[in-house]
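Lecture notes, unit on protein representations.

Consider one protein chain, 98 amino acids long.
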Amino acid sequence: MLRGKRDSFGGSPGHPIPSMDKVGGQTLVLRVVAIAALARLLKRYDERGRVTLVAALRRATKRKCEQATLDEADVAAALEYAQGVFEEASARADRRHS
């Protein structure tokens, strides 16, 4: 979708971040949204609840990767990336919770 002011900054029209390539912009925006949403969710749980929630999200991530028929190395890499997202969200939740 075109946005007049945003798309006048350069880059291809319709990109989430016009100065970035489409995939890079989408990835950055989705990571920011995911971390912010997960941090807000984690804030509502105690430590035990957080562990349970993150474990469920890891299982879901692994299941989706396997449904996409990714090989073991790709699944492991995706889980490692997801772990980084979980850790960043948890750190943000702790900062807001204090």
